[in-house]
């Protein structure tokens, strides 16, 4: 049994941001910090005061975190990035609103006295005396203090205050992990009610000292002759009121939801999983079929989450195709018009979208990646709409002439026709399409053809496939490649327009070039030859896709299963001197790394011969390195043991904070069950005769900071977590239990009156009764667990104030 916390974060957009550049604009991006630890960085949106990001993240972290903060920054090429403002959400606030935050909130000014982080280790003791008791406060050490100096560290000291008396520790230079081991004594008066204040400061020679945080201790709770020792989280000064500044820094639109789940052992979920799988295998239809009931009782706002949870559950059970086939049948049974088929946000549509993202993302990258990269690299001006054409000068030096509108339109059409190679690449990708995706599309094609068999509906099965493949998968990825992990940054305005026009062409092909789709935008006419050719290619592709025999598909699936795909791969910079030479960013060498379920390997290029660097079973920790160690904030360390059991450390540099956290997440996930994982580590490097972080002189001594093995970013290629998916489905069913009981009563009354038609297998009310019993058993299992029963999700969505 384990308690798991996760944060769903969607950073939507900003508005009315202040201008930070001399051009009267800004280049904004967001940094998300959890307890002052940078976890996420959005892409920069250039030259705007109203940026749109639309980026979604899922962060898994220990349930002990305190705050999540969103910093809006202005990127500068020649100087440090400017801080525009921030939004801070305490954990307690998120926990009290399970449906989360949604809406606009004002950015507030960043106050240095509030930017505190880290913990301090204290020992407190009240000693009896002949005339009065004495308070003894031992200041031992601190960890993860905020770096306040340009060198990426601080010069911390501690000020202890009690009843007007102040005592200070010595100053530890250039460290965010100082050790003092100093003790102070104060005389206590009988019945004293004062508090002890322990403040941490960064010493500065030429300016005022910077505040690093404080701890306030109530003396009354300390008992005589009973020492108390522990780590205390540093707190900021009292937040200043800024109501008069609200709105001056702009606003940020967010969706943030905290989910705490107590996940029971797998055996507890087996009855629920088996019951749902039994229903899917039977393919039952009717008023009591469980999948149909789940769809009926699922509200629009949470349908995507429920669809994703169910899809992942059945994917883990090898029943994704059967589950989707059942949804296809349910939707076809209530659809009479072909032009509305799979166009609504039904459970079938949402489940299929999730399915393609989970099972088909690597395939999409293989087909789309080269074309998208070419569009970004060329940055050509493309426009087909005459009302939007911008005429500019062309020609060589001294011979400039204005380009005509006709020339612009013709060049644009030629450019887009060249990108039509995308459809050719798609038509050649039948064998690259994952077996489970092919099988699902084949079943969809057959079901639609059975439902609409007439010659007048010849194109309907093809359009059913393209409605998902083109309209809900390829076209959105072309328009927003950043959101489908095809690019690290959002496109600029010129590239965005090219991508939009290319996506429209793919949509027209996906609609099988119907007159209705052509009539909407007549200016797309120059692409009609390419669209018609694309339709023929796409129909040929789908015909081959759905005609592959089951035997061939299974043979290919077995072949692919023998090729263990990497968990993560990409270029990184490795420190070449292994700690023996000068520690600087120039000591890093670029290599291509591969992380599999067996080892972390590297090669000179993606196609070169691989050399194993670290065996997966030997990893003991994967953590960040202090910025001051290498002059970069994007360096990680992998602590491992070599073949003879000696501890080793590999230093790897990433391009940005997102890449850093993605690699850390991947390394932590694949090594989570390793024996000998470390509970502490050194965030610095051993330079000369001491650690740069805490100045300890013993190289093999205990680390000065705690490891963060449970902090991970969820990615599209993460392994399935069957128990968590089952728990999330249980949580949803618990929220609609009242509706399920009402439906059960209706079915029972119908059975007694003989109005419920007989169906093969179990009666509808019997399967629903089983489900209600399973929910009751799971509720009791949660109630008897040490952490108690998870609260049912209240129907409250907290709106951020404008």
Automatic annotation (TrEMBL):
InterPro entries: C2_dom, C2_domain_sf, PH-like_dom_sf, PH_domain, Ras_GTPase, RASA4_PH, RasGAP_CS, RasGAP_dom. GO terms for molecular function: GTPase activator activity; phospholipid binding; zinc ion binding. Coiled coil: none annotated. Keywords: Calcium, Cell membrane, Cytoplasm, GTPase activation, Membrane, Metal-binding, Repeat, Zinc, Zinc-finger. SUPFAM superfamilies: C2 domain (Calcium/lipid-binding domain, CaLB), GTPase activation domain, GAP, PH domain-like. Residues 565-672 form the PH domain. It is found in: Cell membrane; Cytoplasm, Cytosol. It is a peripheral membrane protein. GO terms for biological process: cellular response to calcium ion; intracellular signal transduction; negative regulation of Ras protein signal transduction. Pfam families: BTK, C2, PH, RasGAP. Residues 1-105, 116-232 form the C2 domain. The keyword Repeat applies. The keyword tRNA processing does not apply. Residues 779-802 are annotated as: Disordered. Residues 302-511 form the Ras-GAP domain. GO terms for cellular component: cytosol; plasma membrane. PANTHER family: RAS GTPASE-ACTIVATING PROTEIN 4-RELATED, RAS GTPASE-ACTIVATING PROTEINS. This is Ras GTPase-activating protein 4. It comes from Macaca fascicularis (Crab-eating macaque).
């Amino acid at each position: 049994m384990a308690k798991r916390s996760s944060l769903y974060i969607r950073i939507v957009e900003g508005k009315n941001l202040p201008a930070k550049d001399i051009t009267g604009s800004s280049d904004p991006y967001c940094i998300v910090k959890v307890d002052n630890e940078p976890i996420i960085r959005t892409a920069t949106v250039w030259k705007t005061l109203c940026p749109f990001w639309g980026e979604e993240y899922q962060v898994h972290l220990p349930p002990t975190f305190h705050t999540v903060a969103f910093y809006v920054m202005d990127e500068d090429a020649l100087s440090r990035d400017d801080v525009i403002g921030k939004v801070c959400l305490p954990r307690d606030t998120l926990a009290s609103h399970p449906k989360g935050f949604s809406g606009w909130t004002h950015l507030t000014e960043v106050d240095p006295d509030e930017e505190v982080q880290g913990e301090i280790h204290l020992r407190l003791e009240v000693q009896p005396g002949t005339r009065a008791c004495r308070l003894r406060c031992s200041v031992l050490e601190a960890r993860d203090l905020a770096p306040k100096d340009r060198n990426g560290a601080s010069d911390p000291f501690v000020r202890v205050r009690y009843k007007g008396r102040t005592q200070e520790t010595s100053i530890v230079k250039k460290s965010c992990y100082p050790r003092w081991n100093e003790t102070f004594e104060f005389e206590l008066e009988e019945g004293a009610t004062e508090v002890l204040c322990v403040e941490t400061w960064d010493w500065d020679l030429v300016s005022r000292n910077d505040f690093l945080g404080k701890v306030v201790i109530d003396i009354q709770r300390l008992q005589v002759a009973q020492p108390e020792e522990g780590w205390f989280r540093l707190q900021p000064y009292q937040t200043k009121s800024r109501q008069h500044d609200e709105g001056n820094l702009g606003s940020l639109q967010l969706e943030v939801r905290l989910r705490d789940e107590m996940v029971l052992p797998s055996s507890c979920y087996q009855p629920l999983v088996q019951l749902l799988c039994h229903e899917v295998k039977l393919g039952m239809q009717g008023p009591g079929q469980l999948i149909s009931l789940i769809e009926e009782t699922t509200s629009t706002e949470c349908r995507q989450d429920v669809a994703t949870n169910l899809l992942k559950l059945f994917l883990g059970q090898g029943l994704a195709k059967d589950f989707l086939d059942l949804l296809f049948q349910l939707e076809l049974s209530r659809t009479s018009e072909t032009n509305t088929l799979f166009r609504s946000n039904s459970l079938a549509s949402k489940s299929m979208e999730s399915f393609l993202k989970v099972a088909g993302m690597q395939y999409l990258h293989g087909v789309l990646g080269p074309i998208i990269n070419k569009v970004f690299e060329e940055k050509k001006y493309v426009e087909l709409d005459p009302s939007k054409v911008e005429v500019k000068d062309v020609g060589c030096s001294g011979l400039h002439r204005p380009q005509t509108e006709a020339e612009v339109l013709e060049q644009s059409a030629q450019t887009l026709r060249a990108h039509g190679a995308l459809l050719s690449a798609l038509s050649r990708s039948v064998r690259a399409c994952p077996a489970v995706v092919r099988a699902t599309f084949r079943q969809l094609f057959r079901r639609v053809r059975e439902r609409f068999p007439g010659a007048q509906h010849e194109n309907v099965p093809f359009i059913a496939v393209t409605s998902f493949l083109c309209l809900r998968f390829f076209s959105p990825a072309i328009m927003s490649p950043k959101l489908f992990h095809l690019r690290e940054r959002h496109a600029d305005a010129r590239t965005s327009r090219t991508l939009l026009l290319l996506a429209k062409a793919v949509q027209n092909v996906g609609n099988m070039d119907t007159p209705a789709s052509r009539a909407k935008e007549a200016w797309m006419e120059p692409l009609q030859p390419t669209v018609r050719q694309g339709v023929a290619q796409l129909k040929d592709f789908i015909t081959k896709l759905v005609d592959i025999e089951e035997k061939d598909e299974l043979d290919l699936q077995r072949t692919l299963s023998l090729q263990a795909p990497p968990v993560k791969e990409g270029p990184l910079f490795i420190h070449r001197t292994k700690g023996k030479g000068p520690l600087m960013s120039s000591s890093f060498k670029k290599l291509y790394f591969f992380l599999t379920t067996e080892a972390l390997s590297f090669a000179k290029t993606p196609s070169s011969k691989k050399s194993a660097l670290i065996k997966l079973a030997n990893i003991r920790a994967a953590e960040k390195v202090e910025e001051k160690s290498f002059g970069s904030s994007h360096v990680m360390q992998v602590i491992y043991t070599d073949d003879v059991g000696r501890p080793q450390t590999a230093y790897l540099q990433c391009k940005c904070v997102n890449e850093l956290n993605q690699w850390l997440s991947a390394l932590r996930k694949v090594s989570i069950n390793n024996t000998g994982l470390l509970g502490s580590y050194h965030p610095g490097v051993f330079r000369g005769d001491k650690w740069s972080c805490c100045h300890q002189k013993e190289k093999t001594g205990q680390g000065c900071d705690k490891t963060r093995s449970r902090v991970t970013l969820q990615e599209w290629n993460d392994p399935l977590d069957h128990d968590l998916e089952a728990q999330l489905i249980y949580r949803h069913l618990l929220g609609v239990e009242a509706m399920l009981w009402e439906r059960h009563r209706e079915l029972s009354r119908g059975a007694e009156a003989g109005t419920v038609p007989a169906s093969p297998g179990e009666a509808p009310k019997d399967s629903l009764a089983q489900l209600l019993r399973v929910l009751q058993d799971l509720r009791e299992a949660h109630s008897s667990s040490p952490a108690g029963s998870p609260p049912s999700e209240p129907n409250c969505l907290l709106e951020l104030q404008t």
